[in-house]
Each structure stands twice: as structure tokens, then as C-alpha cells.
Amino acid sequence: MKRRDFLKTAGLATAAGAFASVPPNGFSAESTTPPTAHKPKRMTAYYFMGQDLCLVRRHLRADMEWMKAIGTDAVAIGIHEFQLNYGRAMQLDILFEEARRAGVGVFAIPSRWGGLVAGWPPAAGQFAATHPEAWALNANGNPHFAVFCGGNVCSIFNPELLTFFQETLSNMLSQWPLDGIVWDELKTLDIEDYSAHAVRVLGRPAKVADQFQATIKFFSQANQFARGKKPELVISNFIYAHLPDAAMQSCASIQGLDYFGIDGRCWPGSQPAEKVLFGNMDRARKVCAARGLGSLALVETQFMGAADARRTLEHLPAFLEQPLDHLLYYYHGTSRNDEDVCMDGMRPLLEKWRKN
User: Fold this and answer.
1) For the domain bounded by 3-31+41-355, which CATH number is listed?
2) pLDDT in tens, 175-184
3) Which helix (H) or strand (E) covers residue 99, if one does?
4) What torsion do the CA atoms of 262, 268, 274, 278 make, to the nearest 10 degrees?
5) By three-state DSSP, how is residue 296 classified?
6) 269, 307 Cβ separation under 8 angstroms
7) φ and ψ at 184, to 5 degrees?
8) pLDDT tens for residues 243-285?
9) Tens-place pLDDT, residues 307-334
10) Pairing state between β 74-79 and 42-46
11) What is the three-class DSSP state of 335?
12) What is the pTM of this model?
């Protein structure tokens, strides 16, 4: 199914309708996270230096001190499968040491695992690259790609995929003293799956509504496993800002989350289904309130030119006046020729938000 068709039709599905077609599991679709006390206010920096094989301690220290000075609580770093296999050779121990020195926590962004999530770098995960039999398939038999460079999307109905996630989570949590996990832009929400895995579970190909329910089940089990390893983890999830209400309701139903929200550009949208925070954040807050979750927003400032950076700085103050529990920002987003201007402009706004 093409994204534009999904956006037209998926919004018509209710959360209840999306729950109908997958066999029961330990996380029933009808169960909800009961309302709890207000989630702590947090500010997290998306910090993708962790993929650099040439980590320089003084650079890391300067970055951590900058982020801590404005009230940043944690940095979120991409964890790709290749980093886990190289262990200390990736030098991430230096990053953790400098984060602890500055008093900043470290969250993991599982990146491109099985093609089910985004993150950095946008390179195919090893499991997806080496298990073609695990791929989700289009009606014509071709594999799904969320982003071509990010590799294939595996079928969420394949039981081996959950085993892979659990083993990889265990490996990651045993290697590094992580404080949280961020599930970045789930890629299972706007596809239909004609693979043998979906047919085995459902007796037919998986429609978008089936994908919603399978996503709830899969990531609930992944969260349960991670918390079994480290109960104090802070676990967050966000999806594209413009996805329909049914997608938001489904992802907010994932058990074991502390925060849920969206990512997008920080300016008002000019057309329907535009990936922007304004307007869409209202919808996200409503589903968070219904599920007892903290609300989250990632302000996207990567891949921007000077005009869009100025546009972000113009609208960011108004956005930060809105209720929000967990603010994520890019520390020096990629591919900008004015990054210091953007970061210098954002700094007082971020600092004010965290203090208030």
C-alpha cells in the first residue's frame, strides 16, 4: 500500500478495529496503561556522534558540558547491530564515561533493527540483510523498504524476529550502562504484509489494521523483556507526526512505555498529512492522557538549510509554550551549513523550557 493511500484509509480505522485479528497474547489489546502520576519532565539530546570511529574525549566532554549547562537530562545515541558486534572497539565506553562525568544519562536508539525502526545510521541491519526469508513482502512479492538505504523491513509476524530483538537487547544492556530506550519511528504501521509469516499467523496477508495489533504485541513483549533486564529503564516511542489517529492510539497502547509522541518539523503545516509538530501534537497529547503516558516531541532540525533553520527558530518559542513532558532536540543536526546559528538560537529557548 502506498503511503498516500494509507493516510487516506487508515485514519478511518478505530483502535478497536485494529485489535481484532491477531491471536491473544500476554498484552491484550483491550488492556490499557492505567493513568499514573505525572511523568517527570525530561530533555534529551539526539546525539549521533556515537557512530564515529574517531571519538575524541575532549570533543565529547565539551559537548556534554554544553548540553548539561542548558539542563539536558540525557543523550540518545544510535545503537546499530554492528556496534554490538565490535564492542569496545567502537569506543562507546568513552562516551558513557564523559556522560557520567557531566551528570547526563544515556538512552539507546535501537537503529534499523530488523528494519522495524529508524535511528542512525540509515544502513541495513545485519539481521535484515542476512535473513531474506524474514522479509515482509508486497503483494507483488517484492520486499518492503521504509527507506531504501535503511534496508528491508522484516515481517513482524516472524517469531525469529522477536528472538533477535530480545537477544540484541540483552547484548546491548549487558555491554553498556544505559538509562533508557527510544523506539524511533516504527516502520510497521503503513504496510501490508503478504509474507508466509503473516499468512501463517492470520490465514491471509496482513492488512494495515493487523499491522497495528502486531506492533502492539511485538513492542510490548520487547519492552517487557528489556525491563526484565533493567526495571528502571525509561522507555519512549515516537512516530511520524502526520500518521492518523488509529496509528497513534495503537502505538500508545504498547505496554511498558513511559513516554509517547511524535517527531516533525517545528512550524505550522500548510497542507494535510504534513510531518509537522503544530496541530499534530494536540492529537498525541490526547492519546497520552488516555493511557497515562508522558507526552513527547522530537524537534527535527536535521537536513535543513538556513531558511528552514530560521523558520524553526521563529516558531519554536510558541511550540515550547504548549504542555510537554519529554522534549527531544538534535544536537547539531546533520547536513546544515549554519549549525552554530541554529544551536545558538535554540540554546536559550531549550534552557528556558527545562528551567520552567
Assistant:
1) 3.20.20.80
2) 999 999 999 9
3) helix 92-102
4) 20
5) strand
6) no
7) -100, 115
8) 999 999 999 999 999 999 999 999 998 777 789 999 999 999 9
9) 888 899 999 999 999 999 999 999 987 6
10) parallel
11) coil
12) 0.89
Return the residue matching grid coordinates 518559542: 317
| CA–CA gap between residue 63 and residue 248 (Å, rounded) | 34
When computed from its CA atoms, the radius of gyration of the chain, rounded to whole angstroms, is 19
Cβ–Cβ under 8 Å, residues 63 and 168 = no
> ω into residue 323 within 30 of 0, thus cis?
no
Q: Which amino acid is it at 95?
A: L
Instruction: Give the closest residue to 107 by CA, choosing from 43, 26, 203.
Output: 43
- For 160-226, what is the HEC assignment? HHHHHHHHHHHHHHHHCCCCEEEEECCCCCCCCECCHHHHHHHCCCECHHHHHHHHHHHHHHHHHHH
Cα gap 243→189, rounded to integer Å: 9
Most distant CA pair in the chain: distance in Å? 57
Handedness of CA 224, 227, 229, 235 (dihedral sign): positive
Short-list 50, 65, 44, CA closest to 95:
50
**What is the structure's pLDDT at 89?**
60
The three cell numbers locating residue 122: 540509515
Interstrand relation of 105-110 and 74-79 (parallel, antiparallel or unpaired): parallel
The secondary structure element, H or E, covering residue 95 is helix 92-102
